[in-house]
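Researcher: Quick sanity check before group meeting.
Model: Go ahead. Protein one:
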Amino acid sequence: MRPVGIIANPASGKDIRRLVAFGSVFGNHEKVNIVRRVLLGLDSMGVEDVRIMPDFFGIGARALDDLDLALKVSFLDLALEGTQEDSIRAARMLSDRGAACIVTLGGDGTNRAVAKTCGEVPLLPISTGTNNVFPFMLEGTLAGIAAGVVAADSGSSDGFICRAPRLEVRRSSELVDIALVDVVVSNPGFLASRAVWDVSTIREIFLTRAEPGNIGFSSVGAHICALPANSGKGVHITIGDGSERVKAPIAPGLIRWVSIGAHRVFEPTESIPISHTPSIIALDGERELVVAPGDRLTVHLSPAGPRVIDISQALRQASERRFFLQPQP
């Protein structure tokens, strides 16, 4: 049985949108409790080896307090920086060491960081962030059980693991960065707090999905032309004085009218130039890239994003295969 990795981001669910909107703080003590339940679920499935990303709060170490587990838990030998680089390097290490899957605790930004280096290792993302479009609202116990199913029976996992798309920001043929949900282009300025909440500064939005049940900037696209996850297409929106405006929840408790200049669905074969320079580009809700005057960047939709575990399908198929049954002695 291959090991299972856990990456819990201690910084998720605490950005400035707690001040400018009405998002609840997702405390690290609750993340400790979630990881504890994940470990108990993994242990119940006979998983033998779990490897956890260390962090400055000690989420994994605290989760082990007073737990009597048969499985072995170790921590990745990682020099901490306290940034998303910790998640990026941890995902690479877990991929290199043949993890069966990676359980993540965070929001869209955390999973974007993990997706950069996880390779073919499937993700099981649990929502503990601000905007949670990519990860799931999920009980940790079920996450641990589902991850255990993957670890114990990974050869039969094709029926419940799917490939998520990603947006690629490119400079000519060079890959600059990626996003799993949205690329938002705004007026030039400072990266500062990184989170985006001021609609008046936004000029363009690129989306991999646009579902009406989502929060964040994907909700803008959802109320113009709904596009489900894994549709194989993307949405490009230009903000401006058009004939319509859309009411959208761009952050928890922050509902705004957004004026739409134009919008269209685009295919993976298309390369769409970012038309506003200079500008700042936010990736999955966090401002990451400063675009200098004259810098020519394009956005592509790639079907080659991370592999993601469908929890309900994994548990259903395991049940159908009588995975949870044992003959009476």
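Researcher: Fine. The other one?
Model: Protein two, sequence then structure:
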Amino acid sequence: MSSNSSPIAILGGTGPAGMGLALRWLRAGESIVIGSRDPQRAQQAADELKQRAGLQAKVSGVENIAACAACETSVLTVPFEGQTSLLKQLKPAFRPGSVLIDATVPLASSIGGRASRPLGVWQGSAAQQAAELVPKGVSVAAAFHNLSAELLNGDDPLDCDVIVCSDDPEATDLTRRLAAKISGIRTIDGGKLENARIIEQITALLIGLNIRHKGHSGIRITGLPEEAYR
């Protein structure tokens, strides 16, 4: 099972969400490998992150397959329409016993592209679809769906909870440790992977709220005992 002392691969990591997570973890002292279809674009993203996080930041950029093969922990931050094809491509690259943290949100833009609506996924959720596509022995956790990419790419703490769903308790613990490294984040065990369908669909609501009220909304879960957030 992975530990957060090893590098983290961010697959499809040149988009806003991947860059934001990478930036926050680099500032927390983690080592990051940015993956992309285009290795040159991945290296450019790594160079940009090093400038923003500091020259001491441990970050490199390579093609997605190389990033996946180099790390025991991977975070998938691609649009939903690219999830299946990328995971099929990566299947031989996953290390046995590794963890994939899936942040994919199954959304479709409405007419004009100003809002998004949730898409139905036959498996129940994007995370459950990912679990069907990775090799046996690779654990999948669902997390980071409800974070604002714009805020992740900023400097201020995030006022948001991260709910983690997985059928593997060790994958849940690993993901929660990584989430807690982001300033302002609290983490909650959201139960089995099947619960990811609920978390994924909340994102569509948050996008609508952000458009309507011109903000960067997140979620907070209240009323739980303090140990639930540790």
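Researcher: One line on it for the slide.
Model: The longest helix spans residues 196-213.
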